[in-house]
Write a structure and sequence with these properties.
- The structure is a single chain.
- By secondary structure, the chain is of the alpha/beta class.
- The chain has one domain: 3-Layer(aba) Sandwich (Rossmann fold), CATH 3.40.50.
- The protein has twelve helices and 17 strands.
- The strands form four sheets. It has an eleven-stranded mixed β-sheet.
- Strand 11, helix 7 and strand 12 form a beta-alpha-beta unit.
- Helix 1 crosses helix 6 and helix 6 packs across helix 7.
- This is Esterase.
Length: 426
Amino acid sequence: MGRRGRAVAAVLLVASAALGVAGAPGAVAVAAPADGGGRQAAAWLPQPTGPYPIGTTSLHLTDAGREDPWHPGHERELMISFWYPTARPAAGQERARYMAPSAGEHFGSDTGAGKLNYGLQPGSTDWSGILTHARQDAPARPGGSRPVVLYSPGLGDPRSWGTALVEDLASRGYVVVTIDHTYDASEVAFPGGDLATSVFPAMMGQPGLDIGAVLRKSMATRVDDTRFVLDELAGLRRFSGLPTGLAASLDLHRIGMVGHSAGGFTALQTMHDDPRIAAGINMDGQMHFPGPDGQTGVFLPSVTQDGLDRPFLLMGTRSNDSGSYHGQPGWDALWQNSTGWHADLTLEGSRHGSYTDAESLLPQLARQGAISPEGLASEVGTIRPDRAELATRSYVASFFDRWLRGHDDHLLDGPSARFPEMTYER
């Protein structure tokens, strides 16, 4: 969940809070540009900055030992995607879609996260027409195993909503695994055409809704999802149909995790619960919740009370109660109780969506009328999109390079003249 009051269900997040650039070189465009005559708006993802072309593939997982917390009587099913270095860049129709057609249609509907999370006009954008920079189902690049980074999106957001950052990490030599948290994510498209949509919109306005209980259930489910994915990665070779060399390219002795909003909480709580994660980044993810059974005060999860003994990075924005880690109890408790290396960054001029694809896509869509100027400012602030993208990518890569590869560019040693937009605290 975010450090400001937003999510798929405004009731949930407001209550909780109460306690690329268009035309960039190498950008990939939507198939159907806006023309003022009812056609859908166009947008581009920024070009990855690393030396490697990238591939992507998706995998359907079923946890036969766990009942779905949101869909009782059914096994828990997930969709994940892999993003990884490959030998040849994507060309033409080899480029993977940003979203599956059914997922994109729902994301852009009245009940999808495009409207509920980001204020976009329903039906204004062809989300499945956006093309990534990755070659679909490409073989993994030879050259040995590579460090693995897991990515968890915000509450209600799909796993695709961090594609710009994920592609950049893959282009730098990481294997990135993105996770859709089923019935939390706005929508999850499964093989065969099934579409699982979020349970949260239906909760809006329910009398007597225990906000804290819903959020705690969501966070626990996310951590269980992530640990299950880690288990499945260890047995990846048993899955047929994966791209050549992909299973062998994962170095499961070097695993990190990054997430936005609720995904940021997921990253650090999973890191606390599971020693397989060596380093984690929380991008603007709140770590305190309303207390149990309507009690006054806040609930602090175990990661904040125990702290972390491994490296972590907090990346905040200027969204309501955001900023320094001192500004909210979860981050402050985590900071005080941790013995591992840690630092706190605040992206000045930003808002909660600035660490997601909202930063590159929404300014383009605003120029085409899909979101109002006021709505745009509330989602991504006033920082230049290209500067926000560059800063985010640079600090995330610097952190994982340092702690998963042993390559230190010293960007995280202190304030940097390269990035005056970032306020640094240790």
